[in-house]
Amino acid sequence: MSTSPAPLLTVRDLRVVIGDSHILHGVDLDVAARGTTALLGRNGSGKTTTVRGILGLVPRTGSVLLGGEETVRLATHSLVRRGIGYAPEDRGVFATLTVAENLRLAERPGAGQPAYDLVHELFPELGQRAGQAAGTLSGGQQQMVAIARTLLNGNRLIIADEPTKGLAPKVVTEVAQVLERAAEAVPVLLVEQNLAVVRRLARHCVVLADGRTAHRGPAAELLADADAARRLLGVGRAGHDGAGPAPAGASAGPAAHPATRTEEAEV
Ligand SMILES: Nc1ncnc2c1ncn2[C@@H]1O[C@H](COP(=O)(O)OP(=O)(O)OP(=O)(O)O)[C@@H](O)[C@H]1O
Ligand SMILES: [Mg+2]
């Protein structure tokens, strides 16, 4: 759209080869300068590898423009210094360290005063649990720590890889609320398989299939198109009345292409 600001992140023809495995064969995606962009696709389609490629955690070729600057040849630490915050798929909290220590470790020299005010506003519970070992937190609380770390340093972009995975519906809602607030401050690239969360948060979406971009467009449009959702995501129903559930036939896809998770709860 001519009125949209330029994308914050522009990825073109991203390819990743690890050993003998050709994992990404040409991923194209734009992360909007505002709000949340969802990165979708079935299990094994290459979402995490795409994120790791953007961050320079795996060898990659192609083009990754951050605010117009080519970054594909930069090392991870340079990308982090340029303001990309990452909440990885496994959350990556240090289990034996306290909440406060996990946050302190995430402070980045030269990034200005760490934004503890914002973190404590969004996550009051983390303040109450500052002295608790992170490994004893619930999954949702650990996810809060992972997201809080990305907000400390005034980042330009937050990448969150399946932040709601494995969480109870009520906690999914809490994490979605926090991400919604975070995305008001910083654009988010959200890897997500819970379509109710996508519906709530994302304006734009990118769908991967077999290591390639299979679809890009408005998230609401895809979720409203049952045929496209079934073809691209393996879900049976993605209309306005909820994210699923997929009918038995649709959810029992071939083993190599398991269906997308489709938690039903509204979030
Ligand atoms: N280091 C690696 N070496 C070899 N193959 C890999 C490596 N990392 C990922 N793969 C393979 O690449 C494919 C894409 O994996 P990736 O983790 O990016 O998928 P994903 O879309 O994030 O899946 P999920 O939804 O299960 O998290 C998978 O087939 C995976 O087995
Ligand atoms: Mg993944």
Automatic annotation (TrEMBL):
One GO MF term attached to the UniProt entry: ATP binding
Low complexity biased stretches: 243-259
Q: Which residues form a coiled coil?
A: none
Identify one Pfam family in the record: ABC_tran
Report whether Chaperone shows up as a keyword of the record: no
Domain ABC transporter per the UniProt entry, residue ranges: 9-235
Gene3D superfamilies, from UniProt? P-loop containing nucleotide triphosphate hydrolases (3.40.50.300)
Family according to the record:
Belongs to the ABC transporter superfamily.
Matching PANTHER family: ABC TRANSPORTER ATP-BINDING PROTEIN (PTHR43820:SF2), HIGH-AFFINITY BRANCHED-CHAIN AMINO ACID TRANSPORT ATP-BINDING PROTEIN LIVF (PTHR43820)
| InterPro entries linked | AAA+_ATPase, ABC_transporter-like_ATP-bd, ABC_transporter-like_CS, BCAA_Transport_ATP-bd_LivF, P-loop_NTPase
Protein name, entry field: ABC transporter ATP-binding protein
Which keywords belong to this entry? Amino-acid transport, ATP-binding, Nucleotide-binding, Transport
- From the UniProt entry, list the residue stretches annotated as the region Disordered: 236-267
The yes or no answer to whether the keyword ATP-binding is present is yes
